[in-house]
Amino acid sequence: MDQVTTMSGDRPLWRKIVDFPLVAMLIALAVVILCITVATYVVKSVAPVAVLGQNLEFELVTIPLLIIAYELVIRHLGEHPRDDYRDPKALKNLVVGLGAGFAIFSVAVAVAAALGVYRVTGEGDATGLLPALIGPAIFAAVSEELIFRGILFRWIEAFGGSWAALFLTSAFFGAAHLANPNASPIAAVGIAFEAGVMLGAAYMLTRSLWLPMGIHAAWNFTQGEIYDIPVSGTPVHGLLVARLSGPPLLTGNGFGLEASLIAIVIATLFGLWLLWLAIRKGELMKPWWVRRRAEAAPAE
């Protein structure tokens, strides 16, 4: 008899430990950190190669590393392994996400313009489209959705249930933006509500990363490269030249419209609608210990 098993036919003890939700989450995070470390080392070790005049080496090295690591390691972790990239509706969910991200932020800009806090002052150019597409759009969508939804949300939910996962990942997502330029507690809370809830609910609804990645990428690209609004506090140069002026609660006070009451309300309402759809679909998961008690209860 195998000494690391508790009963015949059971999984080995080491596998039970590795498969426990919080342990699986920590292993997955360690894999991501390793990928980022390797990408940093590779970029610093080789001669910099500008991509179409832009320094995008780190993003172009890290994105494939993260996806390869996910497919080779991360997706196999946990008691119920699954691949959040393998979705028969991947293209549809991605397109819907891109459209939703564009539409939601465009509505926020329209409201800001109607209130007189957003004004177009001229025409911009397309010189920043490539770095914005690869950096704030694709790289942010792939890396942040993998970490916050594909790892943190997935295994916090597997342990503590959907409500705990939605609350904690939203809070973590907001707090992560405190390191950005012009960040503030209001900006962090805004990101937590508008983006944390919206992207978490999108993940719950589809159980894949494609819808939240689409929303995330389009949200960043639309506000920066189309409407010339700072992306999470980072100044950009869009197709338009515009400025925000007015009360900080309506302009985001240097962080961008993401920290404004306008975007917070609009995006949070959309996120709550996605959450409602997910609950109706039956995607609300109970905590691990509640599921265990239900499985152990004798059938009547």
Overview of this protein structure:
By secondary structure, the chain is mainly alpha-helical. The protein has 2 domains: 1-83, no CATH class; 87-296, no CATH class. Helices cover 64% and strands 4% of the residues. The protein is built from 11 helices and 2 strands; from the N terminus they run ααααβααααβααα. It has helices spanning 13-19, 21-45, 57-72, 90-114, 129-160, 162-176, 185-206, 210-226, 248-251, 261-280, 288-296; strands spanning 118-123, 240-244. It has a two-stranded antiparallel ribbon with strand order 1-2. Helix 2 runs antiparallel to helix 3 (57-72). The radius of gyration is 21 Å and the shape is globular.
Label this structure with key terms.
single chain; mainly alpha; 2 domains; 11 helices; 2 strands; 64% helix
Number of strands: 2
SS-derived structural category: mainly alpha
The major pleated sheet works out as: 2 strands, antiparallel
H/E element string? HHHHEHHHHEHHH
β-strand amount:
under 5%
Number of helices: 11
Radius of gyration: 21 Å
Which parts are unreliable, with pLDDT below 50 for 5 consecutive residues or more?
A: 1-9
What's the mean pLDDT score?
A: 90
Helix content: 55-70%
